[in-house]
Design goal:
Elements (H helix, E strand, L loop, with lengths): L7 H22 L17 E3 L4 E3 L1 H8 L8 E3 L7 H9 L2 H10 L13 H10 L9 H22 L28 E2 L6 E2 L9 E4 L4 E6 L10 E3 L5 E3 L2 H4 L1
Antiparallel strand pairs: 1-2, 1-3, 4-5, 6-7, 8-9
Helix pairs in contact: 1-3
Length: about 250
């Protein structure tokens, strides 16, 4: 007899989804070279740049986010859902394959600027299953523009205080102690680096952090987020002002 309040079909579906997700991650990890971070060599990387087909550690994943999604699409191997096309791109790629590609095309060093080269763009297109052709002048200009924006971002950050180090990925919210699930997802507060669930770092708690180089709104935990629309009540409870009250 089924337990009251639970739908057995949902439980079976969830279990099957978790098994499929685990199998996808194992396929990605089994690709040659993927047992270490592509950039720094750290063991057991838990992040990836799927359009470049490489695995990354937490720190290097943060650096790749700075390249922009046009050049590097970063996802977690632990928390994020992976579609079958994304998994296939990762399986076609791999850290060892990209290193061999760099060697073949005489791309030297480990500079992140390598991802803005025409060769880097052609490699991403090849992984995506697109025809590999010579880039148009417009494509080359687009890459150059993105590189200039990235270099300007790096220059800005060099004159700003360092952003806080993110807490290592864990299973529990640092603020309320909730165990992370697919519903209460794990986030990092960009202001303090704490691990926070979706209740303690809601999607609406965003604002730029120009002192850390974040010129677009980024997520904050409830302890760091402060604006006219969010206030602390005498009891310590966080409340939200109405539009009329905050004006």
């Amino acid at each position: 007899m089924a337990t009251a309040g639970r739908n057995p079909s949902i439980a079976v579906s969830t279990s099957r989804w978790e098994q499929d997700a685990k199998a996808s991650v194992e396929r990605i990890r089994s690709v040659p070279g993927n047992e270490r971070c592509f950039e720094c060599g750290a063991e057991n990387p838990e992040w990836a740049s799927y359009n470049n087909g490489i695995t990354l550690c937490l720190e290097c994943a943060g650096a790749h986010r700075g390249l922009g999604p046009r050049v590097s699409c970063v996802r977690s191997l632990v928390i994020d859902h992976w579609s079958e096309p994304q998994v296939e791109i990762m399986v076609r790629g791999g850290n060892a394959k990209l290193r061999a590609f760099y060697l073949k095309h005489d791309i030297q060093g480990t500079s992140l600027k390598n991802y803005f080269t025409p060769e880097g763009e052609q490699y991403r297109r090849e992984l995506a299953g697109e025809p590999v052709t010579e880039l148009s002048d417009g494509d080359k200009r687009d890459l150059k523009d993105h590189l200039q924006k990235y270099l300007a971002h790096v220059e800005l950050q060099s004159h700003k205080p360092s952003a806080p180090t993110w807490q290592p990925d864990g299973q529990m919210c640092d603020l309320c102690g909730t165990i992370f699930t697919m519903i209460k997802r794990r986030h990092h507060c960009r202001s303090c680096g704490r691990l926070a669930c979706s209740d303690c770092a809601p999607a609406k708690n965003t604002k730029p952090l120009p002192q850390f180089g974040f010129t677009k709104p980024v997520r904050h935990c409830i302890r760091c987020y402060k604006c006219p629309a969010v206030f602390g009540t005498p009891s310590g409870r966080v409340g939200t002002l109405s539009a009329q009250e905050s004006s």
